[in-house]
Write a structure and sequence with these properties.
Number of helices: 24
Mean pLDDT: 93
Number of domains: 3
CATH architecture of the largest domain: 4-Layer Sandwich
Strand content: 15-25%
């Protein structure tokens, strides 16, 4: 895992020293991404400049140094390609010689040998920039799922890119301006719907795509996108067996490293699966890490399930408490590191857990992102299944025994509750422009309808989760791991597993009243039964609603009880304070909205205060 940045400038107006000074500042701003090595590259004409911060995971010697050069090519690369040994073997058969054992060298040689088709070969997470000094052409690419970040902006004859937004800000041509559409997307959806960021003009390279920059112009290409191709002819048992073997192989592949590898262990099915399989890959006890909030009830307590896995596999387990006394000083720091607010407050326990990972000498950690999004792990999936069953029935495709569950699924998915509460007014309007909420929802609905073409409601919602919600989680995971200079991996986003998930019928995923049913069944005999039977969905629980009543009450109030609320063009501070007091009294739960507004105001002060 690393940090990459670069400047492409066709103007010929600046000296090499001027460009290198900017690159140096860009690299320094993300030193946390790569404390082990530091490198520069500039071509003779000063058209292109690269900077690289390295976190050494594979090939710890100088043979893994970047920017990596080979003839007319220069490359900066961030990530891991887990099948690099197989690709390397094929390249060697074609006569390619290798100097070291890094996946970075394989990525560069694969590009030289296969051209732009190489990205279809890579199973992993990556963001890469490759300069061809003969063609005077720059190519930037990102992995299929958008696990590794890559941002860029273009102005006049200059293009600047980096792994983190704050590195782009080091370039004097970039001027910060809030992008209100992106901010409204966050407030009401929790994530973005496209390549936008909270800053106008600053874009995120889309997952599964690459861009080519030359003096003649810029071109964007998509080499992969998630596509639902359900095989209704295959049996439940057949899918289950393939799923089991694919998961085992994916987890095994994600253990490859020249430094210690650990794992998150929340007590849920997903992280427990990784620990259960990975434990057999180590000669010594696997280090596992979990977050805890004492005395807050079953909603935040997974102690029993964690203990079940830890004791069965003998892991060296670390329980990390969130120090609430640090929150007032820590939250602004985390939002700064995140570049922009994203998803929810889970960044707080993530920070403490990842700090403990590094403090215990672990450099790589595996986590369970992806299963819930691909296999129906969230309660609303029950509602999506209910609608999908009705859609199948209308087409004459009856699924025996499942139609009778529709009322129960609608109840479990919250459809009835949402219907009866939809006219309930909790508080006065807290937006200055309330129509913006409707616009954000319309943007979401437009994309949902596109994804529904030829698909069931469940599959369309799955695509929405994979395309738009999951990248937000991955953004959060990337920043909260890199702040502690550790590499966070996501085995369940292995290419083969994603493709398989996109072919499994929805009624295999949510079956007999159970979320992620086929995934649970595939893990029987591997994961302890107590964990597989646990159907409480916690995710990464963070008691923001509890803190807003007590520990964070004064902190939140101080942000909106003054005349210098920088987000005042978007929200009405007095109504936020009213909301806060109602929340504290217990008459309503506004924890999620209060967090979103707090994070937004802190972001404004950090960037425009």
């Amino acid at each position: 895992m690393c940090g990459i940045a670069g400047i492409l400038d066709w103007s010929n107006q600046h000296s090499n020293t001027y460009t290198k000074d900017i690159l140096e500042n860009m690299g320094s701003s993300m030193a946390h991404r790569g404390p082990d090595d530091y490198g520069f590259y500039q071509n003779e004409e000063n058209t292109i400049g690269f900077v690289h911060r390295r976190l050494s995971i594979l090939e710890l010697s100088k043979l893994g140094h970047q920017p990596m050069l080979h003839g007319r090519y220069a490359m900066v690369y961030n990530g891991e390609v887990y099948n690099f040994q197989d690709i390397k073997s094929e390249l060697q058969k074609s006569g390619v010689k290798f100097l070291g054992n890094s996946d970075s060298e394989v990525v560069l040689q694969a590009f030289i040998h296969y051209g732009k088709d190489c990205f279809n070969l890579f199973n992993g997470m990556f963001a890469v920039a490759i300069w061809d000094d003969l063609k005077k052409e720059l190519l930037m690419a990102r992995d299929r799922m958008g696990i590794k970040p890559l941002y860029y902006f273009i102005q006049d004859q200059t293009m600047v890119f980096a792994s983190e937004m704050k590195s782009v800000f080091a370039h004097p041509k970039f001027s910060k301006t809030p992008n209100e559409e992106a901010i409204y997307n966050y407030l009401f959806l929790g994530h973005q719907l496209d390549d936008q960021t909270w800053f106008k003009g600053l874009k995120s390279l889309e997952p599964g795509s690459f861009m080519v920059f030359s003096k003649d112009g810029n071109k964007h290409f998509t080499y992969w996108k998630p596509k639902v191709e359900i095989n209704y002819n295959r049996s439940y048992s057949s899918f289950k067996d393939e799923l089991r073997s694919t998961v085992i192989e994916a987890v095994r592949l994600h253990q490859i490293s020249d430094v210690p590898v650990g794992a998150h262990l929340s007590g849920g099915v997903d992280s427990s699966t990784i620990v259960s399989i990975a434990s057999g890959q180590f000669d010594t006890s696997l280090h596992t890490f979990s977050s805890t909030f004492e005395g807050l009830g079953i909603q935040y307590d997974e102690t029993d399930e964690i203990a079940e896995v830890q004791q069965k596999f003998g892991t060296t387990h670390h329980v990390i408490k969130t120090d609430v006394d640090q929150l007032e000083g820590l939250i602004p720091k985390l939002i700064y590191q995140a570049d922009e607010p994203i998803v929810g407050p889970a960044m707080i326990p993530m920070y403490f857990v990842n700090k403990a990972v590094r403090d215990n000498g672990i450099i790589v950690v595996n986590g369970g992102h992806g299963v819930d999004e691909m296999f129906g792990g969230y309660p609303p999936s029950f509602t999506h299944v209910a609608y999908s069953l009705l859609e199948m029935a209308k087409k004459g495709n009856i699924i025996p025994g499942q139609l009778l569950r529709i009322p129960d699924y609608l109840k479990k998915g919250g459809a009835f509750k949402r219907y009866f509460n939809r006219t309930k007014v909790h508080i006065n309007e807290w937006l200055n422009h309330p129509q913006e909420k409707g616009k954000a929802i319309e943007r979401y609905q437009f994309l949902l309808k596109e994804n529904q073409i030829g698909n069931t409601t469940f599959d369309a919602q799955m695509l929405m989760m994979i395309k738009y919600y999951l990248p937000g989680l991955l953004h959060q995971e990337d920043r909260m791991s890199m702040i502690s200079s550790i590499e966070s991996r996501v085995p369940f986003l292995d290419n083969r597993l994603v493709d398989l998930a996109l072919s499994i019928p929805f009624h295999y995923k949510v079956r007999n009243g159970t979320l992620k049913c086929i995934f649970r069944d595939a893990m029987k005999g591997i994961v302890p039964d107590k964990v597989l039977r646990n159907k409480i969905k916690r995710g990464y629980p963070t008691p923001i609603s509890v803190w807003a009543k007590k520990e964070l009450y004064s902190f939140i109030k101080s942000k909106f009880d003054n005349n210098k609320v920088l987000s005042g063009d978007i929200i009405r501070p007095k109504e936020i304070l009213n909301m806060l007091d109602q929340h504290r009294s217990g008459s309503s739960d506004f924890g999620s909205t209060l967090w979103s507004c707090l994070a937004m105001e802190i972001w404004y002060k950090s960037n425009f205060g």
